[in-house]
Amino acid sequence: MASLLSLLNDYTLQNVMAGAALLGLISGVLGCFAVLRRQSLLGDTMSHAALPGVCLGFIIAGGRHMGSILTGALVTGALAALTMLLLTRLSRLKTDAALGIALSVFFALGVVLLTHIQGMNNASQGGLDAFLFGQAAATLRADVWIMAGITAIALALVAVLWKEFKLVTFDAEFAASLGLPVVWLEALLTMMVALAVVVGLQMVGVVLMAAMIIAPAVAARQWSRRLEGMVTLAALIGMAGGVLGALLSALSRGLATGPLIILSVSAVVLLSIALAPGRGLAWEALRLWRGRRRLRQQQVLTTLYGLAARHEDPVFRSEQGLIDSYHGLRTRTALRKLERRGLVEWGEAPPGEPGPSRRWLLTPAGRAEAERVLASLYEEGA
């Protein structure tokens, strides 16, 4: 405990944890809108498009001035987003194709500029390529304040334009019919995702930032059916994943912070996809198992009803082996469950009739249930 407290008092770790929490907050909130608008690739595009801005900011400032670098990243990320919007509106390209074009062109430009900078005689160029994968340990208190300012601006815009963003996200055509400036609102949402990318460059880098935009929103979507709950939960998941990744990096000594942050959030995504009530894979498997069991019971029940109808005897007693032969497998488990439900009963065979002395027959409730099942199947078939 003492060692953990001393670790938490470390100046560098405090900066990293604060930056990671801010990154998780803004990524979780804005990522929800990107995911719901089916633009999950948008974060990937703008994070890669931020690389030429990083390089241009370095060239203009003449060194690693964080304000210039982040401003350049914001400008080129926004340009990539606007390029995507123009391509989709002025041509027949689909959104995914436009995103792919913007991503490849801007990232290629960034690699060219990065190569150019590496050939310059500038002593501060070292480590500039860390923006590809992030360098959280280099985060300064001044950087945290810049990230906090950007996050505050983004959250304020979301709060002020919440109703408009919500309407554009779920029904852009209806929003346009109400007279809302849908194009400008979509452009603003896209620009805000670029803000989130700018916040994350120092922490997780260009390559991994896309996962930070998508993962908290995807995890939150599994647990919530309303946008308000989804946004709140995504922000909490993003912040928790960021802080946990920073702590794991500090405790492991040597493992990069950015990838650990992404892995922490991704672990929440996997757990959510597996265990979220009503949506998780485990619940889906349970529903399928219950459905198969219910179907087997219905099949056995209608088989007994059909045998009784064929023999024109509503209390016809069927042997266990006869029922098994109809279904090609053992049906005792299904019959026992039907018996507990009061739909069948285990009765004595008629006197003098060959075969087993005890057999299965439908109860009045069982006949009514079998007739209901058959009627519903007939209606579905019709």
TrEMBL record:
CDD domains: TM_ABC_iron-siderophores_like. It comes from the Bacteria. It is a multi-pass membrane protein. Pfam families: ABC-3. The keyword rRNA-binding does not apply. It is found in: Cell membrane. SUPFAM superfamilies: ABC transporter involved in vitamin B12 uptake, BtuC, Winged helix' DNA-binding domain. Its main location: membrane. Gene3D superfamilies: ABC transporter involved in vitamin B12 uptake, BtuC. Keywords: Cell membrane, Membrane, Transmembrane, Transmembrane helix, Transport. The chain crosses the membrane at residues 16-36, 45-63, 69-87, 99-117, 144-162, 174-197, 203-220, 227-248, 260-286. InterPro entries: ABC_BtuC-like, ABC_TroCD, WH_DNA-bd_sf. PANTHER family: ABC-TRANSPORTER METAL-BINDING PROTEIN, METAL TRANSPORT SYSTEM MEMBRANE PROTEIN CT_069-RELATED. Belongs to the ABC-3 integral membrane protein family. This is Metal ABC transporter permease. It comes from Halomonas halophila.
